[in-house]
Amino acid sequence: MRAPDGIPSLPPKVLAAASACAGGITRIESLGGLSGRIVARVQGTGRSVVAKGPVSTPEVEVARRFPELLLRHSVRVPRVFATPETADDGTWIVMEYLPDPLPQGRWGADGQVIAMLRALHTLPSDAVEDLPGRYLPGWDDALTASAASTLGADDAVVDRLAVLAERAQPLFDPRCVVSGDPNPLNWRVDGEQCPVLLDLERLTVASPALDLAIVLAGLPDRAAAAAVTAAYGAGAPTVDEVLLAKAWSVVELAATAADGTPAHDVVMYVRPAFFSWLERL
């Protein structure tokens, strides 16, 4: 079945799994995103579900193994209905559809959002450390060089990034479980307006500063970083750590964004402001 906007047909096993959850399929529409994967709303006669794929091995493992653990730690994620495996198109996830995004007024230091991240950070690290193919964040010379090429950075910016990369190394020490990508667009709210965290593909072990930086939209100032650390409470990273983690997140995005992708468009949009922002770190 092909959606009106021309997204590729979903594999038959994925359609069958979605239909089993949603009823007879009446419509498929793309939900977009920066991952490069197909993320589609499958509307049925009974309800709508989301089909995402093909997904990485860590994301499949989290979908299959972690729902009860996350629930025990009060971390709300979409319910997973099925993880169909296909012969030629990898593994997919069919999950709960949540239509309402996190309101923009709640981006940043929202008490419920930060409380959920804090709860996530209390998960036992060993449960995540053995995930096959787990995402391992870092900032080395190769990442800086790739980002500098994408950004068209001059020598002064490259030198500044090298200094920041050296300062950032403690951020990647295995301090606690982190989402790895709790950006404001990776949240929904349920019927009671409680936040729901999407996309745990990058679940890993590192400093909580990574999550607090990424939950902040754009290029935050010290006041915005201070607000999230205050909301986090005891054990929060410092404001400087959060801002350093934000610099890393932009560098990583720039280093990995392929030409012609939505991620590359985002990088080019923030490029001028990013250079000015770096000077204030």
Structural commentary:
This protein has 281 residues and is α+β, with helices and mostly antiparallel strands. It folds into two domains: 12-96, 2-Layer Sandwich (Phosphorylase Kinase, domain 1), CATH 3.30.200.20; 104-278, Aminoglycoside 3'-phosphotransferase, Chain: A, domain 2 (Alpha-Beta Complex), CATH 3.90.1200. It is 42% helix and 14% strand. The chain is built from eleven helices and nine strands. The strands form three sheets. The chain has a five-stranded antiparallel β-sheet with strand order 1-2-3-5-4. It has a two-stranded antiparallel sheet with strand order 6-9. It has a two-stranded antiparallel sheet with strand order 7-8. The protein is globular. The model is unreliable at 1-7 (pLDDT under 50).
Query: Would you tell me the overall average pLDDT?
Result: 95
- By DSSP, the count of extended strands is 9
The coarse silhouette is globular
Given helix and strand content, the structural type is alpha+beta
**Largest sheet: number of strands, sense, barrel closure:** 5 strands, antiparallel
Distance from N terminus to C terminus (CA atoms, Å) equals: 50 Å
| Strands in their spatial order, largest beta sheet | 1-2-3-5-4
Percent strand: 5-15%
